[in-house]
């Protein structure tokens, strides 16, 4: 079965799923009510403070509601477990103080941001699994036994996995907020970016290598699904070997059904055409038929448009290595990028640059409306709107 035929089967269900549906600016009345009820529930139990500023933004809360199919009770359970886990493992301290070399060692093993976005403005990641062999993982896990940060944990989550979650923090605190404030995308003024698009290259991976990595990848995937829900959008699996149907039988049990429904397994003849459907060729790595000169392990090849849009500080012209996050400036009109982490035992706090806030939203009875149109005009939005020719797959299989 091809990716197209899977998509057709999904579309036949008639359900509205996928970005921007269920996100700010695109909420149905019942979804608005669920968000309002969720916030009330969280506040009553001490897991949310309405502020201003609120302890958690609406786009984060919506991730949990979408993951739990808008069931407020189930969303609360997952949110509570995540907040308790974050507190027990000092996640904010981990991210702010992690050693830059330790961070880079993790980044070189797991999905890497290419510095580019898909046609909807969502950050594009690449994961080449063949680099994650048992010898490399063993060396990484041994190095991870030494605490690379000032975080004090409860010891319940393996140290070898905690360093991985610094990368998820980078996704949610740096890449997604950056893409949110770029005006050259559909829904720029109303809808924050809380997702990522992923190319997963499984070529050159033997069945034995998959088997050796099984426990490590299962543990990492299950923790990510539990504590970073709804951060994955489309996942394109490329280079699947003949035995991948066996491997897929393991993998799909590690994820919730919503995530599984977003996975496309592409045959060789489908790769270029399918990727171009969702990603401009200039942002597709050359090895998959695109124009981007991006090799595994590279630092992000920052989109020239991003470089032009950021107002750089401290002599910088691009983002430095290591963990970074965005925070509002004092007047609230811009967001500032700050580079953190530790180098040689000394904690870093470097102002990188600022962006004008484009996606400013205000809440009206749980709804989100544009607060001033600073981004695309209606005409520009129409010119840049993406025509969705594919839908999320329900039961992906290897294409013949």
Automatic annotation (TrEMBL):
Biased composition (Low complexity): 1-13
Protein name: CRAL-TRIO domain-containing protein
Annotated signal sequence range: none
InterPro entries for this protein: CRAL-TRIO_dom, CRAL-TRIO_dom_sf, CRAL/TRIO_N_dom, CRAL/TRIO_N_dom_sf, PI/PC_transfer
Top-level division of the source organism's lineage: Eukaryota
PANTHER family (alphabetical): CRAL-TRIO DOMAIN-CONTAINING PROTEIN YKL091C-RELATED, TRANSPORTER, PUTATIVE (AFU_ORTHOLOGUE AFUA_5G09260)-RELATED
UniProt lineage: Eukaryota, Fungi, Dikarya, Ascomycota, Pezizomycotina
Region (Disordered): 1-26
Source organism: Neurospora tetrasperma (strain FGSC 2508 / ATCC MYA-4615 / P0657)
Alphabetized Pfam families for the sequence: CRAL_TRIO, CRAL_TRIO_N
Ranges for domain CRAL-TRIO: 102-296
